Amino acid sequence: MSAGNVVVLRPKERVQQDAEPIATIYRNLGAASAEQVVTRALTELALTMAGLASQIRAHDLNDVDRQLRRLQRMSENLGMVSLGLIAGDVRCCLQASNVTAFSAVWARLLRVAERSLATDRELLGQTQI
Questions:
Q1: How far apart are CA 107 and CA 103, in angstroms?
Q2: CB-based contact 100:2 (threshold 8 Å)
Q3: I want to staple 81 with a disulfide (CB 3.0 to 4.6 A). Which of 16, 19, 29, 88 is the partner?
Q4: Is 22 helix (H, G, I), strand (E, B) or coil?
């Protein structure tokens, strides 16, 4: 096979978000307090994702199921629909001990997390549900 026949695939995930959980936080707390709460929650979610990525790279699966469940719950609370669903899918692969599926779905989770946590766009402006 010549190099001209090689196709590089760059999967681009469609990220689904629901603005309602964030809007509810803002309605209930007011803009200043809500911004602090949302920023703290997004930071915690990003740190959880980073910790999971570090564990997976180190092949340390201790407590990964619990961390994925936590990531799923935090994502759902912030209206990050895709991120929460895929975290659940990764948990299913882990529980089934399906290494191939785990690797594929984990890669998908990383792509979606990267898009979901991008700092250059507004969360509410990117709702796609």
A1: 6
A2: no
A3: 16
A4: helix
Residue ranges per structural domain of the chain:
16-122
Q: Please tell me the pTM assigned to this model.
A: 0.81
Which residue shows structure tokens 């469940």?
Answer: 69
SS (H, E, C) 37-106: HHHHHHHHHHHHHHHHHHHHHCCCCCCHHHHHHHHHHHHHHCCCHHHHHHHHHHHHHHHCCCHHHHHHHH
Buried/exposed 38-69: b ≥16 CB within 10 Å, e otherwise: beebbeebeebbeebeeebeeeeeeebeebbe
- What pLDDT score was predicted for residue 2? 52
- Work out the end-to-end distance of the chain between its first and last CA atoms, rounded to an integer number of angstroms: 43
